[in-house]
Request: fold
Amino acid sequence: YPGSSQGLSPRETGPHGCYVIEVEGGRVSDLEFVATDTVRWFVEELDVGEVASQDGLVDLLDGHLASVREAAEGRPALIRLSLVGRGPGHAVARQIGEEQLQQIVQERGEVEDPPIWVQSVTLRTAPARDLAALRRGGTFVGELLDEVERVRTNADARRKLSKMLGELFGRRDMPPLAGAEAEDPTQWLDAAQQRLLDLLVPEEVSAADVD
Reply:
């Protein structure tokens, strides 16, 4: 199978093309991918959780469009964009609304050549959580948050965590650290805390209901 010359839908993102194959002595000696797509599909997520203003959100969108344009390698792009994240950016994005955000992204994507055409912009943001409220009341979630904070503020506990992470991700059969360094366990603590809260505290449940 030589490859697909053109992505036809959002399910076919990234470069498409074919391989130039060199054969010597009945064996493949070299493979070279050659992109042949004239339009490139992108399905992207952009974290806007920490954005505090509409101007800040537009600046973030501009930066993301620039990275998409670079990845498109000189050809037009089609993008399906989801805005995600938890924090003040939720209120900022909701105030603008999906329809106007899509119009903003479309207009700014078409300013430069080659253009970026927008298929959709979807809001999947969430408000910031009140961690202080979740810690109160002696709930299971509160105890988990207290334990995370204990490790975060205890140098000996952080060293032990770094050692365990280094041993775990030093194994050949483990995937890369996915953007977090074992030497800095606070990144892992933050990610673990966020994941626990996502699993244990649904949006519609208040802190007083968590036990």
Summary: Confidence is low (pLDDT under 50) at residues 177-181, 204-211. Strands lie at 17-24, 27-35, 40-47, 77-86, 116-126. The radius of gyration is 23 Å. The CA atoms of residues 130 and 207 lie 8 Å apart.
